[in-house]
Amino acid sequence: MQTSCKGMWGRAAISAKLTRFPWLQTTPDFAALLEMLSRSKCTSVLRRSIQSGSGSCVSSSVRSRSANLALEERHCCLTYRRRISTETVAEMSEEESYRAAKPFNTIPGPRGPYSIPYIGTRLLFKPFSDYPMEGIGHVLNGLHEVYGPIVRVRMRSQWVVLLEDINDIQTVFRKQEKFPYRVPVQPDLTYAERENPRLHRLTNVQNTNHIFDSNGEEWQRIRSPLNVRLNRPTSAVGYLSSQEAVAVDFAHSLYRLQSASPQVLQELFFGYAAESIAVVCFNKRLGFLSAQGEPNEEALRLLQCYKAINTAVSDCMFGKRFLYLFFRDSFYRRYSEARAATLSHADTCIKEAMLELEKMKREGTLEEDEPNFLLSLLSEKTFDYLDVLGVVDQFMTAGSDSEKLAAEILGELGPHGALTADALNRLTYMKAAVNESMRIHYPVPAGPRRKLPFDTVLSGYQVPKGTNAIANSSRVAISPLCYDEPARYLPERWLRKDGGQRDRAIPPLAHVPFGFGPRMCIGRRFALQEMYLAVVKVLQAYRIGLQDNEGHLETTFTPFCGPAKPVAFTFTPRQ
To answer: Could you tell me the keywords of this UniProt record (predicted)?
Structure first.
């Protein structure tokens, strides 16, 4: 026999019973739930539930716990569920979907000896396979060809999931905490621990060295002032003229050295990139690139150190090198020497800038609005010396139809015109061409990676909290699900019509060569400006061709994308 909720089951009585569940009284619409219970007819199951303190009715509706309740109790819960916040419903739905998903260890991927920490990763490369270590991008793509859109693979000591499905990638990067966690650069951390305790700051629970790759609140402390200086739309414009001077020297050097070997030209490209970022970091030329001749001896040594660091990071990122973690092998000694040289150089430049800053303050000649990156860092009250050293070091280390493109440039600037901020905004086809080049030849072997802050379902599989997920953006870049005719070089796909729409909308996160979200590359605007300037100054002066008109360009990664063998260009002066 059912009993009315009035009387002993009136509103006051129910409210008193529910005080056993203090967490419930803080949930959305608690008053509405109380009213619902007091007006409904409760079965004996519901009454026993509240009297015993089990809270099965309440917890199933608010905390997503399953229970075998009577029909009326379940109806009450479902009715209340409609009234609580959408966010709570979403959380319950995700919990349920996670439990229903296939287990993590059933995700397709190489098994057997490939599962052994460190060794398993090494087996993916020569001499155990056809891929050299520099072909890491091809290995990752090959894993997707064999195992599908989600792959579980051992990288060093951890399990990692590789993703090529744009929906999975969007799920990962839209479910991030306030401070997204990024896997630190292990060689830098090892170097700091062993060689330079002054740099080794344990700043948060991840024990991450913030000089090289911080996380958590320490990352936010450093990143926030940098965003003001570097991440605004106009941040790079102040350095346009100084970077343009480097680009002019680059164009002259290309013509002077065009008969040189392709290897020499490849070195020239690296020198241009280093000199372009040096004028931003140190507000002066360092001699990596000169229109008159070779770099000076000191600059050449420093340039080789930066190249050695980049190559070492690439080797360690995917497991080729790991013995250095346990003892100081020859690889580690070479890396340590290169790292010490670059830090020493940055240290010298910063101390010189500190003296200059003090002098300008004394003489009253300090211009607050003048673009001087290093002086602005030194003026930042929340930064100490090691913060400045780390930022500068990271900056220096991390660094089509050409005639149609040339026509836009020459029509806008003429053969000798300077590239202004206004002109740069109007060169829409050039920007589209750069975007398309980065899509066809993705600049890194894979896209951004994140450590999952929550249990997540990807492609129908459980992926536990703490797992590293890597977006294989180079696969997404050639997916017909994201691009029409993905094999074609087609800059027009990036152009917007008058209404702001493209011919085909490109899905969010399909093209993220500089990363995504708060952890996007801090030097993105400067790197793009550097590329734009190189394209403008070279095409203003020359027509570009190839000595061997090969249809397909093989690429390698060290750690950034480059030709597997040097490309033989030709440069013909324009009339």
So the answer is: Heme, Iron, Metal-binding, Monooxygenase, Oxidoreductase
Q: How far is CA 159 from CA 121, 182, 471, in A?
A: 10, 15, 14
- DSSP at 507: P
Q: 356: how many CB neighbours lie within 10 A of its CB?
A: 16
CB distance 424 to 453 below 8 Å: no
- For residues 310 and 379, state if they share a domain: yes
**pLDDT per residue as tens digits for the range 441-457:** 887 777 888 889 899 99
Q: Which pLDDT tens digit goes with each residue over 26-46?
A: 444 445 444 544 544 343 333
β-pair partners for 263: none
Q: Which residues are bridge partners to 153 per DSSP?
A: 160
* pLDDT band of 150, cuts 50, 70, 90: very high
Residue-wise DSSP of 254-269: HHHTTTS-HHHHHHHH
Are residues 166 and 306 both part of a single domain? no
> What average pLDDT is seen over the chain?
72
Q: Which two three-digit tokens encode residue 267?
A: 């070195």
Do 274 and 369 lie in one domain? The reply is: yes
Q: What's the rounded mean pLDDT across residues 58-72?
A: 34
Q: Is 349 marked within a binding site?
A: no
Task: Give the separation between CA 396 and CA 398, rounded to whole angstroms.
Answer: 6
CATH number of the structural domain spanning residue 363: 1.10.630.10
448-475: burial string, b at 16+ Cβ within 10 Å, e else: bbbbbeebbbbbebbbeeebbbbbbbbb
Q: Cα–Cα distance between 137 and 125 in angstroms, integer?
A: 12
pLDDT for residue 71: 31
d(CA 266, CA 569): 10
Model pTM score: 0.65
Structure tokens, 451: 């450590």
- Please compute the mean of the pLDDT values over residues 228-253 and round it to a whole number: 80
100, 128, 161 - which closes a domain: 100
Q: How far apart are the C-alpha atoms of 61 and 29, rounded to whole Å?
A: 12
For the chain, the domain total comes to 3
Per-residue confidence (pLDDT) for residue 203, from 0 to 100: 31
* Nearest-angstrom CA–CA distance, 224 and 370: 20
Cβ(170)–Cβ(177) below 8 Å: no
Asked if 571 contacts 543 with a C-beta cutoff of 8 angstroms, the reply is yes
What CA–CA distance (Å, rounded) separates 80 from 76? 6
Task: Say how many C-beta atoms besides its own lie within 10 A of residue 132's C-beta.
Answer: 15
Rounded Cα distance, 387 and 350, in Å: 11
3-state secondary structure 121-154: HHCCCCCCCCCCHHHHHHHHHHHHHHHCCEEEEE
